[in-house]
């Protein structure tokens, strides 16, 4: 059914201590919300990501509230964000189909960021961080080439006015098998 919520988790998402799926599903059920992400905590108890942030001095996204205490993000409450930056996101099945899934050129949280930017550009809704839903991500052990491929893909996205042509939803199909 197209009314279902899909919660996608990349392998670097460590199992949460709490059930986050219901909180994320509730968030994407709100009008005007296309994607929702949990608060991503680092192993040292600080915030790893409360979403993507963009600076004018550096065009690629960074992680919102990275390095701040988790309590700071929780005090801010559930908030709209520029785009998700998390190894776990929720979206409706209809949104996933309309966006044709993830862009398989991304190997990191930029895949979720790209999906959120495309949802907003398509008028499907905004992204939301749900800081009461907390997950932990494994430290980034990705090969060095990943960041440069992600940066190239993000540059291509910006070069097409935010309308990157996606050749299919292969990655979404693979990741759907890892539903929480």
Nearest-integer average pLDDT: 79
Number of strands: 9
- How far apart are the termini? 18 Å
Strand content: 15-25%
With helices defined by DSSP (H or I, 4 residues minimum), what is the helix count?
6
Category from helices, strands and their pairing = alpha+beta
- Give the SSE order as H and E letters: EEHEEEEHEEHHEHH
Main beta-sheet strand count, sense and barrel state: 7 strands, mixed
Fraction of residues in H or I helices: 25-40%
Report the principal-axis shape.
globular
Low-confidence stretches: 141-150, 157-180
- The radius of gyration over CA amounts to 15 Å
Provide a brief overview of the structure.
It contains 6 helices and 9 strands.
Key terms for this structure?
two-stranded antiparallel ribbon, disordered C terminus, 7-stranded mixed sheet, alpha+beta, 180 residues, 9 strands
Structure notes:
The protein is an alpha+beta fold and 180 residues long. 31% of the residues lie in helices and 24% in strands. It has six helices and nine strands; from the N terminus they run E-E-H-E-E-E-E-H-E-E-H-H-E-H-H. The protein has helices at 21-28, 70-76, 93-99, 110-121, 145-159, 170-176, and strands at 5-9, 13-14, 33-41, 47-49, 52-53, 62-63, 79-81, 88-92, 126-137.
């Amino acid at each position: 059914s197209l009314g279902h919520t899909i919660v996608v988790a990349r392998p670097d998402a460590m199992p949460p201590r709490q059930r986050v799926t219901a909180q994320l599903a509730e968030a994407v059920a709100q009008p005007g919300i296309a994607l929702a992400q949990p608060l991503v905590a680092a192993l040292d108890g600080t915030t790893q990501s409360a979403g993507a942030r963009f600076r004018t001095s550096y065009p690629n996204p960074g992680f919102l509230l990275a390095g701040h205490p988790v309590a700071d993000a929780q005090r801010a409450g559930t908030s709209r964000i520029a785009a998700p930056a998390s190894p776990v996101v929720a979206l409706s099945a209809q949104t996933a189909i309309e966006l044709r899934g993830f862009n398989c050129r991304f190997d990191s949280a930029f895949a979720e960021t790209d999906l959120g930017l495309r949802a907003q550009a398509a008028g499907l809704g905004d992204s939301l961080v749900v800081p009461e839903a907390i997950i932990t991500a494994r430290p980034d052990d990705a090969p060095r080439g990943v960041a440069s491929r992600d940066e190239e893909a993000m540059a291509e996205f910006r070069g097409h006015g935010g309308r990157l042509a996606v050749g299919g939803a292969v990655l979404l199909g693979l990741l759907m098998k890892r539903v929480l």
